[in-house]
Amino acid sequence: MEYLFKGHLVYIATKTWQKRKHRKKRINKKWLKKYGCCEINMMPHNQVVMMDNGVIWMTKRTWENLQKGIKEK
Length: 73
Description:
alpha+beta; two-stranded antiparallel ribbon; single chain; 33% helix
C-alpha cells in the first residue's frame, strides 16, 4: 500500500501470504476462501526508514499511530 504524507510517498512494509496452500489451483482457491491470509511485518514497529528519493517505509501500526497523532492536534 502507498500513501502520501507531506509530499512524500509512504509505503507500508507488510507482506501478505496465504495461510495454507494446495498444489492444485482449483483446491487452492477454496482453501484461500476457507483459511484466509495473514500479514507479516517486514520491519519492527515504530521504525521509520526514509530513502534518498523521498520515499518513507513504515509498518501499518506505525502509520495508524501517526494518523492518530495528527488527528488529535
